[in-house]
Records
---
Amino acid sequence: MYVNLFSMEETMKRIQVLASAAVAATLATGALADSHAWSLKRAAEPYAGTTIDVVFLLRPGYEAIEAMLPAFEEETGIKVNIIKHPYENALGEQVRDFVAGGDLDIALIDLVWIGNFAENEWILPIEEFTSNPDLVDPDLDIDDFFPLVLNAFGGWNGVVYGLPFDNYSGLLFYNNCMLEAAGFDGPPATWQELKDVYGPALTKDGKYAFALQSKRNETQSADSFARVIWPFGGSFLDENFRSNLLSEESQAGLKFRQDLMQYMPDGIVAYDHAETVNAFAQGDVAMITEWSAFYSTVVSPDTSKVADCVAIAPEPTGPAGRKPALGGFSLAVASQADDDEKAASWLFIQWATSKANAGEYLQRGGVPARHSAYADPALVETFKFIPALVESWQDGVPEFRPRFAEWPEITEIVQEWGSKIMLGEVSTEEGARILGERMEAVLEEAGYYSGDKPLAQ
Amino acid sequence: MRGKVSRRTVFAFIGPAVIGLAMVGIAPLLYAGWTSLHFFNLTKLRRVKFIGLDNYESVLTDPVFWEAMGRTFALLGTALPLQIVFGLGIALVLHQPRLSLLKTLTRLSLVLPMATTYAVVGLLGQVMFNQKFGVVNQLLGGVNVNWIGDPNNAFIMIIFWDVWQWTPFVALVLLAGLTMVPVEIEEAARLETRKWWTVLRYVQFPYLVPGLVAILILRTADTLKLFDMVFTLTRGGPGSSTEFISLMIQRVGFRGFDQGLASAQAIILLIITIVLAQLYIRAFYKEV
């Protein structure tokens, strides 16, 4: 089992304490004694006319904030220039921009990019802004973010760089009508039950019990490979940063995936999110484990034939408990921006992730990471994924995928050999052995084994 | 009448072209050469260092590189003969007298596949070869073939698209070769024999050789750099089944950000392409 230098709890506490302390210190200066005086409009006055550039993805959460954007631009006079990319291009585009000293003023950071961005000093700690009473919203309330999400998406080595913006947890979406027709009165509680009981009963007449998106890109690493090793007690690395993929637990997870494939559609190794969500929405698949962000797609009659049958539960548990997939993005101010752009960018990030906007963001298809957003019982009625999501964010693993700077290289290896394992081109043992060797070679080159870099994620 | 042209005039005419070529062709190549001798990862620019030929050693001893290379030549070895056979057949049909309007329309329609953007071909393929609602399975009688998700079928699908897109090019080049055959010689040959094969082998073929050499060189280079169509269609998958050499280089350089290693791979690929082009010319072109 993976053990970090700092326990998860300890790291979270450190981040919260630091972030809260920064805000508290600002408040304590007295500069904000009259906190009612602060307004976004007033804070943005010096930066009116500034244009800030940010990369957005083609996903519901981004469309939600884009729809809300006119209100921000009108109030602040700050122009937000959105550059849209599919997920697969987003990292490359940003890396090239930061390396070349380009135009991006805000970094959109997947949780596995945070180490990379922070170590390259492409992003700034939020403390640079929360320490400025002119810029910090008195209602920022860092503690309102789910600690797991704030730590995993925006934190690195005890410093908060980004605020959680587009937030996901893996959830079990199931077609209640198909399950009821097969005699089930609820979803499977465990992965084993999903395979052994629900699998045979729901795989018939051209329909399949389950689909696990496994295309050879980040989907293979995050949604498929990692999803099966953690609940079975496995992990990518052990406490010495050596491969843990040949451990009994990791192997159990990988073998489980191979067995489970008999209840998945043919060619599941070519399924990305779109194909998987579509198969579920068309009623061809009874259950999928997908990101919360796809909720609006599967419950909308415009995009789903099974909208009325959709029900949601936390991901099933494994022998090691519930270890749901964790993914999502934070927004951080880019260090390459000039001072006005930095301030304007911070105001935008603060606004986009604010408590005040969380409700509307949710209503428009986004998934905020604030406790307060989910406190309203009426919202729970409307958005069926909320209880499962909140529960998942209590049990998640920040290192679901290692977040260090070497992940872009390692994920390529996982994608290649994870796919080969699924296709039966190599056994789980052989694939894990080669994958582990290559992963360790990357880590050795990076200096983890020589002591040049601390064993921290 | 030839007059003496000053060096300055010569330079004025060809200088801009040479400078332009140097800037867009030679300079990037030299930079790639420099990069290939360094540890050069875009996300670790503080650690850039000279490592000699280590990247080349890594490439040459990497089985994944050679698997991708083997896959690329398997594609070339399968698709190119098919393109030549089909292209020659089309060219011979179009070379026949009569049916001039139909031939003109056919020539025009041959341009369409070539004019289609590579990436669009891949996107079309995603829809047409979709297992559930794709037109290909419907045309095959409603079969349930998994084209994109099966490694072998995905490879066949790539071959199909490559043949579809580039057979017209081969046909047009060979047709141009056939039109070079002097009419009186061809007519005399047809009086001597009624065997079309004999006419083709001994009269027409020598005129086709320059075109064939051009096809071999261009199609080999095209296949070695085949990227767009495959990237949009399969992204190299499933698994590695359609990860051809150019996709691998892109993956290493732009998804793993290891520009040094990717540059070494690209330079090795360039050397292989040049060597093959020379071999083609030496083996075939001298027969003309």
Note: Chain B has a mean pLDDT of 91.
---
Amino acid sequence: MNSLERTERTASGGFSIDFKALGPFLALVALFVLGTAINEAFLSGGNLANIFTRAAFIGIIAVGATFVITAGGIDLSVGSMAAFISGAMIVVMNTLVATLGAGIETVLIGVLLSIVLGVGAGAINGLVSTRGKIEAFIVTLGTMGIYRSLVTYMADGGTLSLDFEMRGVYRPVYYGDVLGIPVPVIVFFAVAVAGYVLLNMTPFGRKCFAIGSNEQVARYSAIHVDRVKTLTYVIQGLCVSIATIIYVPRLGSASSSTGVLWELEAIAAVIIGGTMLKGGYGRIWGTVVGAIMLTTIGNILNLTDAISNYLNGAVQGLIIIVAVFLQRGDWRRKKSK
Amino acid sequence: MKTFTKYLGAACVLGLGLASTTAFAADKIKIGVSIPAATHGWAGGLNWHAAQAEKRIEATYPNIDVIVVSANGASEQANDLEDLVSVQNIDALVVLPFESDPLTVPVQQVKQAGKFVTVVDRGLSLPGIEDVYVAGNNPELGRVSGEYIRERLSDQGKIVVLRGIPTTVDTERVDAFVDTLDGSKIEILDMKHANWNRDDGYEVMQDFLSRFPKIDAVWAQDDDIALGVIEAVKQADRTDEMFIVGGAGMKDIIKRVMDGDKLTPIDVLYPPAMIATAIDITVMKFTSNAPVEGRYILGATVVTQDNAENFYFPDSPF
């Protein structure tokens, strides 16, 4: 509720700055300053392109997670789902090379399959948790295990590799660029814009907010709670499939270690961005910044040898907590009083 | 854990009882093989080679039955050992422990039940339990890789190192590697953990590439990491500048070595096929008069274009 009040106040308050909305951006700027101070190679075009391209996977998935979390749900299965969809795409495309040849058609069928699987998997998560009246945590914990096992099974415990001819055809989807901007970054931006419009400018978005704030009240207000919640999981599934479509051409492989812990990174990106874990309020641009921040931390740690490798996780954890603390907390309001 | 161990002990005593009454009735020699499930590439190869060895041995020796079980964690593996003794009534155990510490006592129980025990790769925390120990050689892998890089670079140049998951295996490899470079003019620009993972290998290498304008060689120490490194180097269009040394013996990398890829001139073996070595040695105990007790440490063989064919298993998942 706090954040709603705050947003309203800012809207009418003229010059007062909404720290909550700006918080993640400020933290990101601070990180960029830190990165540049540590190593000037940080600001090179190549390195920045690397950061944004890498952030695209987690970022796209996190845009979907913003919907799920805003509506009061949680999806733990996204990392395994990404691994499973990658695996399925590779198997099907490798099979099709024999009949269709290594061409655009094969890639398109792979992409179509990815979308069907993503939407389907999302619908399963949504329907089982709403119709089955099982907590989303349990449902998606279950599907997380299922998808992870399926990809291990498909790969026979090893690694599925995309046909080498196919890699040549599919490669531009990850390595290509338009006017110097890498394709994954463009896709990431497009997904974020679409997510922003859907969450902030449509009745569907407002229903997500309402359900996340108070599910009972939303139900009494004649909102089809189950339908909206299921749709948020479908959107999440679609986002996972889009992320997978640009992930597969990167290394052309999938194994049981693909996408491990992506679910936690995605959820972390969403929360760093200012969305509330208990639901009721979501912010897409915050999520985008959160995803870029997470990637940037890893990148900065790789650019310096000042910090022991063994402490990487500690530094990451600390920065995440500080970033969220800066934009939450009552400390600011107390001061302003 | 205490109660669990007690329970396990009871089960093993029970197993011992069963063993002594049924051992004479059993006409086949049973060899139990307990290994981690195929949750990553190397373990996938392990499972595949165990299954291949099972087929081959059962076809050669009709009186031997090999039972392979795989576990998803240390406590599940302890349960497996219990079942192998009490339900399957095995005569010998080949075990690749998930982790050394938690499995030391369960394996000891098997030994105390009078079984022949072969331990693979990860040693137990107490000495004298196993009859045979079979393992790859981590320090040797580091040393051999270091020597190759010294020789190729004529004792001078700049290299980067991608480490695995912070564990003893990783430390042993890296320490031996660094020692080997001692006294040369080779400078290690930096070492970062890539966790034996392709995606991490790709990202860490990207960052090394933006940080260092000149890199002569990359020690990836693992073939999964090496595959990520290869893509990063290709993307940066710096393939002519450096070469990459991996490790393990993954078929994709062996294939590149076989095809004479300049980026990956060699690979150093740390083969999951060592499980087959262990099973074969254990079978020898029952099929020949050769003494087999002792330690069998595999060499860290260097795979070059000339011998790559011998180590290429296109059907293996790893």
Note: Residues 11-25 of chain B have pLDDT under 50 and may be disordered.
---
Amino acid sequence: MANPKIIVVGGGLAGLSAAIKVAEMGGHVDLFSIVPVKRSHSVCAQGGINAAKNLKGEGDSTWQHFDDTVYGGDFLADQPPAKAMCEAAPGIIDLLDRMGVPFNRTPEGLLDFRRFGGTLYNRTAFAGATTGQQLLYALDEQVRRYESEGKVTKYEAWEFLSCVIDDQRVCRGICAMDLRGMAVHTFPADAVIMATGGIGAIFGKSTNSVVCTGSAQSALYQQGAYYANGEFIQVHPTSIPGEDKLRLMSESARGEGGRVWVPKQPGDKRDPKSIPEGERWYFLEEWYPKYGNLVPRDIATRAIHKVVYEHNLGIDGQPMVYLDLTHIDRATLDRKLEGILEIYEKFVGDDPRDVPMKIFPGMHYTMGGLWVDFDQRTNIEGLYACGECDHSIHGANRLGANSLMSCIYGGFIAGPHAVRYAQNIIKSGSQSPQTVYESERKRQEEINTRLMNNDGTENPFLLWRELGDTMTKNCTVIRYNKNLQETDVKLVELLERYRHVNLSDRSMWANTSFVFARQLYNMLQLARVIAQGAAMRDESRGAHYKPDFPERDDANWLKTTKAYFAADADEPRFEFDQVDTSLIKPRPRRYDAAT
Amino acid sequence: MANSKTVIIKIKRQQTPESKPYSEEFELTYRPGMNITSALMDIAASPVTRQGKVTTPVAYDSNCLEEVCGSCAMLINGQAKMACSALIDNLKQPITLEPFSKFPIIRDLQVDRSVLFENLKKVKGWVPVDGTYDLGPGPRQSAEEQEQAYPLSRCISCCCCMEACPQFNEKTGFVGAAAISQVRLFNTHPTGKALKVDRLQALMGDGGIQECGYAQNCVEVCPKDIPLTRSIADVGGQVMWQAIKDFFRT
């Protein structure tokens, strides 16, 4: 039987994991990525990766990891895949260890684990404070090995435009654009795995990398894929506001003992080190005595918001609070956190070993994504998704250090399932006529021609700023229906203005602004899914918080949101699925009580 | 302040690999905390030169913007640097931006650095695991071993060390410090060691480690402070011993 040919789109942890599994099973991988895969956004993950190895004598278990994950996600996650991930996690850590990831060690030479948010156990393995980078490199090296054996072909500097879907609604390959020569090509495959990561650019500035636009997911949504739980956006409590992006300050800073505080006196101008203990307010420790600074991210983010905007206690009247590590000795900080301290030092100019850091919440992660079943299949046959671009595992809020695990786990499920599906396709001899590829290529080329020759007055970069400002203001930490409805009106306006985009560069060679303008359209379409989904969900759950509906409403909203694109109306429509809560009965989620 | 402060940036540009380079100057409004990537974003939003000429956004590589993906390397005031961590406050004006000079140019500040990834293939920069199925934990390693490996493993493949190296050019075909340092990393790993001989042999002969002229520029420019010269010395010793062994074996 011929070897299955699988296309993997995206070269972060999820894509590389899928590629490794496919190659190992004898399939051939065509791996597409905008950037060289070693430069994918997974490198930005800092603090660690969760697995209940129970190496600290705490009685941790995969079930406890599962319970923390589901509880942390406010019971919106389908439970069977979350449980399967937690059970696979210890084995995945062992594999990464065997691949040479330089995880921090205990004196005995075993893997060291630190604490992270939303759990009371030391469950997070880490490689300094650049764990994502180290994991990505280990997988990148294994893929390079397969590449040198001819089992993986890389297409780096290629932009995914769409899937090729035949008359039977089966995915038969992809359509992509060469980012140098700008030519549009189609690539046939027996199955396609999407691993295209996050959507941060929809919010303008975020902790995400430049390529995290959600353009690919949006293109697929417009082709008929369901997009699920789009309204669940994680705002990380501790980021460093910057001119070009919000840089992440890892949760591991708090995992290693970092404390969040503000001066009790509004507008206190003293040097933070000179403010006595009694005049500091450690509000997380006061409000959440059991978890303290390590409450889940949605809780910490809302607490910081409250302190800044309701108590008016932001540092020096600015929207910022202190994240303080100065009580921890330098050697420990260097051994466990050097990578992130270096980022703060380089970009802010202060040494966080001496001076408390100034941080504020920033858009960080999408829990929602392409809808997938428990085998990572989308609703389009032959099309799979894994990693941040899929909707599974994290429910309404992701726990820190669960994303690296879910990316690798998702890839390890998607890869083998895609191979088995492809083997059946080959056996059945099912094929699509060449015209299917031709017509998709033409459709994409027409979009390009129209955009390239557009004669308007709108600047795509300025439209994008308006998009980001609106989404950040109305669709992140605190949500009001009135604002959400206004957001959708604004998005419709931006889509209308997009029709009059004028490109300042019309050349057909490495035209980055053209590529960006193309992504912008998809960002706008996906933004409507987020805003409308948020407007509909009249409750508060995990990262989704509406002051007008402050409680979780299981009777009406223990449901997965599934958006699909109504092409004739050019807007999203919504369906809702029951959440699979067959393993753990939903219970109230409270981190302030001693229960 | 009387007027709002401005930033002046001179950029060496080139439309295509075949066309002639030219220079354009931009004047931008200064903001505290500004870095080179945010300046390039400002230019993209309003691509007008200091002389008022409407031009095109500048092509450059970038991704993470926190100096860990390795994308945005370029020559900033003549020095190989990452654009994201280059803060305007620390740069002498007018600031000049040029593409790396030793790599094929794509457009403006974008160059093709795939040679490093090819070199990593040649030196077999990976740990040869049996498979991805569950085979239990990896080899035990001391905290000291981890602390030695980790800094080497933080190489972001930016190629600053290669750009700054006088020996890295078409004539020598020198593999460069980054790949050599990866050889040191993998040769130290308990399982990675299995390919040690292959790696050392890949570093022998033309373009190999002997091309290093000990200029030490690599370690000077490395944004991650990787001990590159130590890696070269260490691997140089390993290659020499391997060559002697190979000599007596044949």
Note: Residues 6-111 of chain B form a domain with the Ubiquitin-like (UB roll) fold (CATH 3.10.20.30).
